[in-house]
Amino acid sequence: MKFKSGRAITEMSENVVSFLSRGGTPNPSKRLNPTKLQKARKAKAMTQTDLAKDIGLTRQAVSAYEQGAKLPEAETLRMIARVLDQPISYFVAPEREAFGPFSARTYRAFGAATKKRNEQCDVLTDWLSEIAAYLNVAVNFPDVQIPEVPSPSEGDGYSEEEIESAAESVRTSWGLGLGPIGNLTKLIESRGVFVGHLPVTAGKVNAFSYWSGTKPFIITGSDDTTAVRRRFDMAHELGHLVLHQGVGSEELEEKEVLKRVEAEANRFAGALLLPRLSYPNEVFSTRITNFIPLKERWKVAISAQIYRCADLGILTDHQVLSLRKQVSAKKWRTREPLDDAIQIEQPQMLKRATRIAIDGGVVDGLTVQSDLNLSSTIVGSILGLRPEEMQPSTIESGPTITLR
Questions:
Q1: Beta strands 207-212 and 215-220: pairing type?
Q2: pLDDT digits (tens, 9 = 90+) for 330-367
Q3: Please, is 342 exposed, middle or buried when counting C-beta atoms within 10 Å of its C-beta (0-12, 13-18, 19+)?
Q4: Would you call 207 helix, strand, or coil by DSSP?
Q5: What is the pLDDT, as a whole number, of residue 17?
Q6: Which residues pair with 210 in a beta bridge?
Q7: What is the C-alpha to C-alpha distance for residues 229 and 2, in angstroms, rounded to an integer?
Q8: Residue 161's closest CA among 276, 273, 257, 274?
Q9: Tell me, what's the pLDDT at 379?
C-alpha cells in the first residue's frame, strides 16, 4: 500500500484521461472497464437513459460503452466520472476482490418495483465487501462464530421447534444466558459479522444479509426507523445467516419461498430477543401499558412482543386481538412509547478497523481512497467516517511526557 498524495492522485487521473485521448488509440491496459461503468451507474440508481441525458449522448452510446463495444472520448469520460461521482481511476482500474463468491442477498421483495433498488444495493454491497477485504490485510477482524444448525427435518421449511432451538443454540454458543441482549449490533460484530449501513436512495430497504466467501454481512439502509425496529431487523437477518445460507437467489424470487423464509427469520428474531424460557415469566398482565416497561427492559417493540406472545401461546386469540386494537387506537403502529428514548445502535467494526489502520501508520485516508479507486464520499459513507476522520489522530505539542 503505497502512499499517494492528493496531487499524485489527481495527476494519475489526468494521465489516464490524456492517454485515452492520445493518438486516437487507447492503451489496452488502460481501457475503460465496462462492468465498473455499469456498477457506478447502478450505484447512483440511474438508467442508461438517465446517464445519457446527463452527459448529452444517446442511450445507445452508453450501452455501447457498457458492452465494451466502444470507448468514450476523454471529455466524455470526464463527464461520466463527474455525473457518477467517481474518480476517473475507478473506471480503468481492475476489479478488486472480496472475500469470495457472494450468496443471495436476502431482500424482502423482488420484481420490477424493487429492481432498481436491489441493483443499487448489489453494487454498494460489492464495494463494502471489497473495502472489508482490503482492511482485512491490515487488521485482524474477529473470527466468525455463526453456529451451524441441522437442516429442516421435514421438507424445505423449519418447524417452529427447530427455529426456537436454533435461536437457543446461538444464545448458548455466544454465552448470552436468558436475559435481555444489550447492544445487539456490537454483539453481532464481535462474532465476526460485518455490519454496514449503506446510502440507499432508490427505495426503502430495512435490512438484508449475505455471505462473501466465509464472511457474513448484515446491511441496514433505512434511516427512517427506530432503535427497537433496527434491533429486530438485525436479529431477523442473523436468522437468515443461521438458517438460510444455502438458499439461492432464484429460490428467494419465488413468492412462496420468500414468504416462508421471511416468516422463519421473524420467528428466529423473536426467539432470540425474547427467549421462551424466560420472557413469558415477565408477562403478568394483558394491559397494553404493561408492555412499556417490558419494552424498556428487553428493547423489543410492543407490537413485536404481542406477536411473540401469540407465537408462544401466552395470550389467547381474543387477548391478542384486543391488544392490537389498543395499539391502533393509540396510534402506536408507527410510533410507540420510548421510541425516542432508546438510541439506535451504530455499527463500529469497519470504522474502528480503519481508524486502527490509519493511527497505526499502515494506511492513511488518501491511500485508502486511491487503493480502492472509489470516491471519498462513498468510502466515507460505507465506513461511517467523516473526511477529517480519515486522517491520523494528532496530539498537540507540549511538554515531553514519558513513563516512569
A1: antiparallel
A2: 999 989 999 999 999 999 999 998 888 888 888 776 67
A3: middle
A4: strand
A5: 34
A6: 217
A7: 43
A8: 276
A9: 87
**Cβ proximity of 303 and 336 under 8 Å:** yes
CA distances from 36 to 28, 89, 230 (A): 16, 11, 32
List, for residues 128-181, the tens digit of each pLDDT value.
999 999 999 989 999 999 999 999 998 889 999 999 999 999 999 999 999 999
Long-range contacts of range 112-120, CB-CB < 8 Å, 24 or more positions apart?
114/203, 116/42, 116/45, 116/47, 116/202, 116/203, 117/45, 117/200, 117/202, 117/203, 117/204, 117/205, 119/42, 119/45, 119/202, 120/42, 120/43, 120/44, 120/45, 120/200, 120/201, 120/202
Q: Can you spell out the DSSP letters for 27-90?
A: -GGG---HHHHHHHHHHTT--HHHHHHHHTS-HHHHHHHHHTS-PPPHHHHHHHHHHTT--HHH
Unique residue bearing C-alpha cell 494521465: 15
Write down all domains in the chain, each with its CATH number in brackets.
6-94 (1.10.260.40), 112-329 (1.10.10.2910)
Residue 300's closest CA among 180, 147, 389, 206?
180
Q: Are 236 and 207 in contact (CB under 8 A)?
A: yes
Residues in the chain, pLDDT under 70? 1-30, 365-366, 391-404
Residue 304 has, within 13 A of its CA and on its CB side, a CA count of 27
C-alpha span between 200 and 198 (Å, rounded): 6
Inter-residue contact 33 to 44 (CB < 8 Å): no
The count of other CB atoms within 10 Å of the CB of residue 2 is 7
The residue count of the chain comes to 404
